[in-house]
Amino acid sequence: MLQYSKLNLKENPFKANIPNPEIDKSNKLIWAGLNNIKETISSIYRQASYSTHKQIILNWGPFGGGKTFAADYFIHSYTKYTKNDKSFIQVYLRSPKDGTKATKDFFRNFIDFLSFSKISETSKLIKNDLGEDKFKSLVAQTIKSEEFSEAICLLASNDSGILSLMRRYIYTGLTKTELKKLNLARNLEADTDYIKFLAAVIFIMIHSNNRFVLWIDEMEDLIYYLPKNYRTFSQILRDLFDTLSKDFTVFMNFTLSEPKESTIELLLGGAIWSRINRKVRFKELSVEDALEYIKDLLKYYQLVKGGVIPFTEDVVNKVIDQISPIDLTPRELNKYFGELIEFSCENDYPSITVEVLKMWLSFKELHG
Fold it and tell me: Is residue 179 located within the same domain as residue 251?
């Protein structure tokens, strides 16, 4: 089998540059093309670095248009403010699949991504800095709940037994005896309980002038909820957005191929819709956009920089022609060009010519 180096590549660019924002790793993604999108989202982060204003952003466009890629890229590219060494604390969540327990799943997935340990450690630092009474008071004022401020304060305990109980309090709930031991009145039960607790967690994470950024991906899944479920979930998101008044940024990724935004407005509800500060439109690519994307990506992975090697210009144009204009997205380009490179490696073709392309297309047609 031909090595990638024989094709003048470090590795297959169209297979390597695939996002997975749920994995905590150093960012290795290469931003290719889509420069207007990159600049728009970069400007949102720049604004966040010098302003405390809340930001609620809607990213929307076709399947495979780059929304999840943007989440991964920016989560791992922006960690420190550019001028004052403050931190961006970022969380990526996919929209819950089951509308009947959407709030609980959203809450637990949030805790998983951020990690119980990080929440506990941050709580300890703030409690030690402010003192227990002031710490409780600040949390209670933010979430309008003395009850849950007590629970948040327990996350700052140095007692491993208490922390073990608090972990179970968050994920499964405690017995009456265990609640009494912690001096807590009840478990997290209603949707509003989960959101108040979540708001308190975000509040302690942004304390000391940090900025919290929440990416919610695949929000189009709300369309599969029963009406009462998506209305409930929209309501709890609104409550979360309204509870946190500053240093909070939310990106909502919504896949929609329709040119109108009315479906999104219907699912999110007028309350959230009216709170959106910015809308970022991910569109199908033009042929020129597609060429820019391909060249930018190849340039990074080429061993010796130059043109569209290992492809010929004719091959690149013919592959783009294979893709319907309504499907011309980064994901489709990755699929076509990535598979063509693999085919060339498997069959020992060191240059991907029109003849190789024809053989690959015949192979695809034969094997589906």
Answer: yes
Could you give the CA distance from residue 237 to residue 195 in angstroms, rounded to a whole number?
8
Nearest to 56 by CA among 257, 202, 216: 216
Range(s) of the domain holding residue 348: 4-16+285-367
Q: State how far the Cα of 171 lies from the Cα of 173, in Å rounded to an integer.
A: 6
Q: Which residues share a beta bridge with 242?
A: none
Which residue, 336, 325, 148, is CA-closest to 243?
A: 148
Examine residue 249 and state whether it is found in any structural domain, yes or no: yes
CA–CA distance, 75 with 40 (Å, rounded to integer): 15
- Helix 330-346 with 313-322: angle, nearest 10 deg: 120
Give the alpha-carbon dihedral of 136, 137, 140, 146, to 10 degrees: 70
Query: How buried is residue 316: exposed, middle or buried, by Cβ count under 10 Å (0-12/13-18/19+)?
Result: buried
Alpha helix (H) residue ranges in 17-159: 35-50, 67-77, 102-114, 116-130, 132-143, 146-154
Q: Verify that 145 and 222 share a domain, yes or no.
A: yes
Q: What is the pLDDT along the chain (368 residues), one digit of tens a residue?
A: 889 999 999 999 999 999 988 876 656 799 999 999 999 999 999 999 888 999 999 999 999 999 999 999 999 888 765 556 678 999 999 999 999 999 999 999 999 999 999 999 999 999 999 999 999 999 998 888 888 899 999 999 999 999 999 999 999 999 999 999 999 999 999 999 999 999 999 999 998 778 999 999 999 999 999 999 989 999 999 999 999 989 999 999 999 877 788 889 988 999 999 999 999 999 999 999 999 999 999 999 999 998 999 999 999 999 999 999 999 999 999 999 999 999 999 999 999 999 999 999 998 888 76
Report field, pTM of the whole predicted structure over 0.90: yes
